[in-house]
Design a protein that fits this description.
The complex is a heterodimer of chains A (114) and B (114). Chain A contains no helices and 11 strands. By secondary structure, chain A is mainly β. In chain A, the strands form 2 sheets. In chain A, strands 2, 4, 5, 6, 9, 10 and 11 form a 7-stranded mixed beta sheet that branches. Classes of the chains: A mainly beta (114), B mainly beta (114).
Chain lengths: 114, 114
């Protein structure tokens, strides 16, 4: 099976712009979760989608949003970018849940906000 | 919400020695405790996980112990090898239900000296 695929691999944006990141889960996986990774802060949970519905949400402002399609592919959107949004954004897929089973991570999208 | 603290932030050991990383969690309802390894420039990968009905779990050179009373769990790596050099993240979650999320520690950078 193909692994979790994230596109694009790198993004450079300026403050105030918006960005959309994409994640294709492993075939058969229905849960997709997103994480922000920054040096010193580790991995911070953004949200989880299951069956096209947001199941859980982390402590991020409303500028961060996402969605999931019927084929389980997911997108994450960040509007009105701020310098502090520069980070590696990882998505992970799992069979049913992001909180009690193995997560398979993608390679991430490295976002730089200038 | 759940808070996971991880220590030490950096750890350097001689090849062949043991390494121990400790994490504490705040929510006594947490039931699922995975450990992820992230090599430089690569995606995190699950190396071992434990659930609250088990006190210890081993997989070759890796073991995890859980003390629910004290709310802490530890990763033990024996006979360390250079390929064990990576950042290790612990995490905790309740493991079910709406509003649950996987909370990660801030990571431990392990360096194994040849």
């Amino acid at each position: 099976k193909a692994g979790v695929t994230q596109t694009p691999r790198y993004l450079i944006k300026t403050r105030g712009q918006q960005v959309t990141l994409s994640c294709s889960p492993i075939s058969g996986h229905r849960s997709v979760s997103w994480y922000q990774q920054t040096p010193g802060q580790g991995l911070q949970f953004l949200f989880e989608y299951f069956s096209e519905t947001q199941r859980n949400k982390g402590n991020f402002p409303g500028r961060f949003s996402g969605r999931q399609f019927s084929n389980s592919r997911s997108e994450m959107n960040v509007s009105t970018l701020e310098l502090g949004d520069s980070a590696l954004y990882l998505c992970a897929s799992s069979l049913e849940s992001a909180t009690n089973e193995k997560l398979f991570f993608g390679s991430g999208t490295q976002l730089s906000v200038l | 919400g759940e808070n996971v603290e991880q220590h030490p932030s950096t750890l350097s050991v001689q090849e062949g020695d043991s390494a121990v990383i400790k994490c504490t969690y705040s929510d006594s309802a947490s039931n699922y405790f995975p450990w992820y390894k992230q090599e430089l420039g690569k995606r995190p990968q699950l190396i071992i996980d434990i659930r609250s009905n088990v006190g210890e779990k081993k997989d070759q050179r890796i073991a995890v112990t859980l003390n629910k009373t004290a709310k802490h769990f530890s990763l033990h790596i024996t006979e360390t090898q250079p390929e064990d050099s990576a950042v290790y993240f612990c995490a905790a979650s309740i493991g079910w239900g709406s509003g649950d999320k996987l909370t990660f520690g801030t990571g431990t950078r392990l360096a194994v000296r040849p």
